[in-house]
Amino acid sequence: MIVGEAAKFIVRAGARRGQGQALRGGFGAAAEAAVSDWIRASALAASADRCHDFRTLRDRFDARESSWKRKRMRTSEATLTARWVFPVEGPPIEHGCVTIDHGRVAWVGRASERSSDLDLGNAAITPGFVNAHTHLELSALGSDGRDGTKAACDEIDWLRRVVEQRRGGGREALLTASRRNAAASVAAGTTMVADTTTAGASWEAVGSSPLRAVVFAEMIGLRRGRGLETSQEAWDWIGGVKPEDQVASCARPGLSPHAPYSTAGWLYYQAAHSGLPLSTHLAEMPEEIELLRDRGGRLRGFLEELGAWDEGWEPISARPAEYVRRGELREADWLIAHGTYLDESDFWQFRPEAAVNGHRVAIAYCPRTHARFGHASHPYRELLSRGVIVCLGTDSLASSPSLSILDEARFLRRGDATLGGPLILTMATLFGAWALRADAVTGSLKPGKSADLAVVALPDLDDEDPYALLLDSDLPVVASVFEGKFTSGPWSLD
Ligand SMILES: [Zn+2]
User: Fold this and answer.
1) Which of 148, 362, 474, 475 is a Cys-bridge partner for 389, taking CB atoms 3.0 to 4.6 Å apart?
2) What is the pLDDT of residues 128-166, one digit of tens each?
3) Is 129-435 CATH 3.20.20.140?
4) Which residues are near ligand 1, the ion (C-beta closer than 5 Å)?
């Protein structure tokens, strides 16, 4: 399991912060290896994504020293140069360049080896960020309707306000918020999202945006009637999504049983039998553990207040991990939001190696949302050290001040100086892509992958550590590129 091994390697390398060591053997290795990686990635990308003639691309790559073919390539190529390029699967490149051809990364290397079509100056080119957990339909909760950070930090009070917001707005309000938040995500350098939706309300906004996506339809309800209603709505939506629309919009549907405290066990089993990618909130707060263990506590009071409590409800298990790891529930891809209160003895179950039949399991950690509710420290370090894939999410604007994964990465780094820059950047890009089964297409700058990029302004400092320049500043994302085209910022390649 390459990515799992990579996680362990990066954690070890993390102690040597700033040494520029990310993943072993990525771009920058022998050209032969690069070609074979490229061909494999291209082949996978072609089957998973757009139709693509990788044989032609291979011919071009093999012949890159041939001036005749070089001339032919130039007709469709564009080379971007910048002060630093972060391929993620390989060390950062000072004065680097990325050549884009037909929407794909064709070459990554030193700027001196190619002629530049567009110099981005004192900036970093990184892979587009992957937001591994968000709810684009939700808006900020503050009393003035804009500043979510003013809301109370008690998570159950917060849940009450989220329920009020969702009950107060119709489908049109969800779509309007989704459009605004999809645009904000693009401007923040995000090129892929794991979005959670109410019966597909965000699908149109996400699908028409320059974003890759898995859109998880929420299933919720301890009471049987409510569970049937929400699962029926989810399936009605999924049934109407045509395969060709998925290809055209680079998005596909999934299912999300909301959380063990809100969703009956049979909905988890129904989701696991669907064959779709799955997501759930798991081990999010101490009250959830208390409810699963005792069928009591503050969450029960809250559910009774909402009229959502079911006297006959029995949890799948008192251990949240069992909601995704017990029996048939393992037979699915699971992207787990939070996981803060997972029992340490269950961590091994979340290693890629512990998943069956090639299924994938990963944890989406949302650092700023986590901090807002004053939780116990998140076990991301312990999970990573065991080879578990931990990626980054923003959660929604109802709990996070922005939808920027770069902001999450910087927040994480400020709170944990021992976490290596290479690891943080990989959590913000490649690990999310892996969790969403898109790592053959996006998540790193590697020939054959889609040219999904973020351009981040860098400070006028001479720091030797490029990760310090990228992650210790508060300078913004200045442009986004999706499939080789600028989708935000002042530049164009046309
Ligand atoms: Zn969430």
Assistant:
1) 362
2) 999 999 999 998 876 544 444 544 488 888 888 888 887
3) yes
4) 337, 395
